[in-house]
Amino acid sequence: MNFDLLLKNGTVLDPSQGLRAGRDVAVAEGKIIAVEPLLPAVQAREVIDVSGKLVTPGLIDLHTHVYAGATTWGVKPDPACLRSGVTTAVDAGSAGWASFLGLRWHVMERVHTQVLGLVHISGLGLVCGRVGEMLDLAYADVERTAEMVRTQRDYTVGVKVRLGQLSVGENGIAPLQLALQAAEAAGCPVMVHIARGTSLPEVLELLRPGDIVTHCFQGDGDTILNEQGQVRPEVLAARERGVLFDVGHGVGSFRWEVATAALEQGFWPDFISTDLHTGNLYGPVYDLPTTLSKFLYLGLSVEEAIARTTVAPAQWLGRADELGTLREGTVADLAVWELEEGKFDLYDTYGEARQAKQRLRPVLTVRAGRLWQPEDWTPEAEEEVCQRFAIPPEIEPELAAARERMARRRS
Predict the structure, then answer these.
(1) pLDDT in tens, 155-210
(2) Is the full-model pTM beyond 0.70?
(3) What does residue 281 show for φ and ψ, rounded to 5 degrees?
(4) Cα distance between residue 325 and residue 323, in whole Å
(5) DSSP assignment, residue 99?
(6) CATH numbers and ranges of domains, the chain
(7) How far apart are CA 97 and CA 169, in angstroms?
């Protein structure tokens, strides 16, 4: 059999198969057709030597915002993802029922990255960062949200809701209750954003097995830690009954101190994601490999980190038979990495740096059999969008105040 692409002499790391071993990977007609030692180079149209490098399934970023041009948060998915080993991005509620078809027609169906989406319970979605999308409960529509999820099953994966003072004002957990009603009607999970002004115990009490708490290591207001720095009993109880926890790094939702304390107590995230958007593409998030490198610093093995961005989200998406794996016959979504050694400053969203001794550097990405390299992308188009919108003005004072509070605590 002839190959379109052959990656030779790499170390294949595929948590879905419990595999870490020297293997060649052959691709033909957009599919993985062989993962074996010593495949013949003469049968390949293109051969790339990846000696000394890791070959993994393409990463799945479970929390992004990629409705570029239609929302203040949205970045273009292809430059952001295909230069960084990400082959599937889940847009986390940029569009509500009123605009989701636009996300499908103008992004999902036009880009090379596979984009799936959570439908926001607010019809506004996240069109404008300056406006809390659930300050008025009239923006929610349970029936239309559920209908959009049901009728767009190839593209939708659940319902999104953001809680916290900026998003819901005085409406508390009512938006979550509405999101859960829509999810029940559509037979899908909910992803809930937590932030200052959220009563976390109330939120957790409502969530069902398979629902996701995103921003689980955020550091303001109710966090997953109690006043003694211990993981809250309600958090442990929620995990025990099947509630899942996602990093969702973002521009204000990852604090070293919270993550370190939680991980020291054995509380690891189920998923590692970026919450990539215009306010963090140029720092402190940058991309999913940078976020993964922070968890290598915190003590995850490379296998554990890759699992939380491949097989784990693929299972949650109900697509483990096609995504997050290098099994023969599946779509040829894969990434090649160099595990660099050195001294690397990594930042949380409060401006605190930690110096890591290693980081994951993307070398190339293959999406549906097509090869992409980091140098294929230039930053100018993204930079223009990010400079125009950047951090919404009403959020910046909140972040500054949070950083000041944290500085006082440390002093």
Answers:
(1) 999 999 999 988 999 999 999 999 999 999 999 999 999 998 889 999 999 999 99
(2) yes
(3) -60, -30
(4) 6
(5) T
(6) 3-56+332-339+357-376 (2.30.40.10), 59-317 (3.20.20.140)
(7) 21
